[in-house]
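Researcher: Next sequence.
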Amino acid sequence: MVKHSLGLAISASLFMPAAMADDEVTKPSSEERIVVTATRTETPWLTTPASVQRVSVEQQHPGLRVDAAELLQGIPGVQADTRYNFAQDTRIVLRGFGARAAFGVRGILMRLDGIPLSMPDGQAQTSSIFLDEPERVEVLRGPLAGVYGNGAGGIIDFQSAIPDSSYLRAGHAAGANSRARSTLDAAYREDTMAFSLHHARFRTDGDREQSEVERDQWAARMYYEWDNNIQLIARLDDNNAPLLQDPGSLTPEQWREDPQQTFAGASVFNTRKSIRHRQQSITLRQRLDNQQWQVAGWHGQREIEQYLPFPGDAETSSGAVIDLERGFYGMHAQYSWLPYALDQRLELNLGLDLERQEDTRLGFANDFGQRGELRRDETGKVESDDIYALSTWQFSDDWNWFVGARYSQINFSVDDRYIVPGVVPDDSGSLSYDEQSWSTGLNYQFLPDWSAFVSFGEGYETPTLTELAYQNEGTGLNTELTPAQIEQAEAGIKWQGRQGQLQFSLFDIQSRDDIVVDRSIDGRTTYRNAARTERQGAELSHQWYFHPALQLRSSASFISARYTGDELDGRRLPGIANTNLFSQLSWQPWHDNRLRAAVSALYRSRIATTDNNTEFAPSALVWNASLQARQDHQSWTFNQWLRIDNLLDRDYVGAVVVNQGSGRSFEPAPGRQLSAGVTIQRSF
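Model: Next structure:
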């Protein structure tokens, strides 16, 4: 529970007299500009031929900021499920993309300030994000996302802000089950130069047994701008989580009996994970009157050790202790030109993406929580080279046309060193894919505050290194596994006025050669191309300021996602809720940030957990509430917040594990939880 002294301090300070805060309630203007678009350049939201959502982090409930779902609530088309298991990443599904991911994020491109968080083979993790940093989140859905490359069923772009002043800030937050997170931030700003340093320390005993967590994060940023409008942004990140215990998921029967129990094998085999993620990046960009360019490069290392809940001691197994060392690097370059001859109504973009990934993977038997004998030893490499061309043409005052195309060459190779003659074959091999993607969209602004759009496109999603590793018969990579091919179409309407904004979209997604599990024996899993799938749906979102003190933000997402053809014809795709509803009412009595109260409701319909649809996680309606306050006194700023999750104390499933071999498909959510936090800032 929250520490008593902290709770008293916050409760008292929420109602202290305060000087008028400088910040006022921000309403959307008719010229709001977004960055997450297929052109990778700033484009007016109202004239973009795509479903795009922009949410300020300040609009979300305050919180501990230990799970990416905290920043993604209420975004239409996005199903962000918290596992309440810090050994596993947030489960993110966007219009059905990413639903089959057993871990991490698949089928969705994630970025932070333009730097990819996704690997070349399409995998991404949210645990490496410093969640205090983003100022807003922008999500691009639909066909225009396809020109971003491999697995880009949608784009989630976390965006931070350059410090506008010098400051020193300290904060502490606490919550149920000994959750405690401390932060320390500092920034220096002078003319065209800025630096910032950030640190966060998180500890918890966890919501169930065998779920203790230790995690520390460090980050450093540097910003510099020359007289000729050239900007430099350098970033250093270090995320060290030496202990992430894993309580395991539960079978439906276990969840109904006691949702807070821990899977027995978790204690027997001491299931846990440790992660060390380090990444460095540098971006150079220049904006001129009719042209701009940018070049970005990044490099990183990710080290993982994970203990799974079974022995994995058979020679044909891959082991049950994973020891992974991943190195990755890449660069992105883009040039944009707006010809004077066409009154800058035409924008042309040429770009290049080069990415590399190398995984050295060892597997050992799990000797009841101790590392046993070697069962896997290999190095896998991915090389991705992409070129693309994009254009946006405003051929009249009311019409905008976008078109883009991309060519990708992706090479996979594995060097297998664990070979037992006659028992364990040599699974070395290599494989190459040449893929193309394209999209086009048309936007018509038929009134000053209204526009309509339609878009189409084709993309692809390759298998990951893990999915290519084995085949049922023979040795080497599974060369029969091919990329899934995806066709998308959508149409929508938008409104933006002084009192808010609204967006409604219809979409259709057809895929063929979807990648599914073929066979799993003793940890050795093979995959195959199988069914076609189809997804149709509708999305509605709005923000409405119906009073200076009241804001309503709501979204509704409906999707029918099913297999077509093959033996699964007509079955629902597992891991996807047909209906997601969200509504949040915020009240700021003085029309500024001195005091804000918010209450939200999130409904998620039932979710199939297997391809054959024999088991479903039940639907859930969850209420959350928060109260936050701010006081400004000369150069000092004080912030406090209180938050209650699962206000009605309901039992529900936080997330599901799709096609879990032993039937343990439910990740339970905890009951009602209270958390609170304070920050103190001194500006210079």
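Model: The CA atoms of residues 549 and 589 lie 5 Å apart. The longest strand covers residues 370-393.
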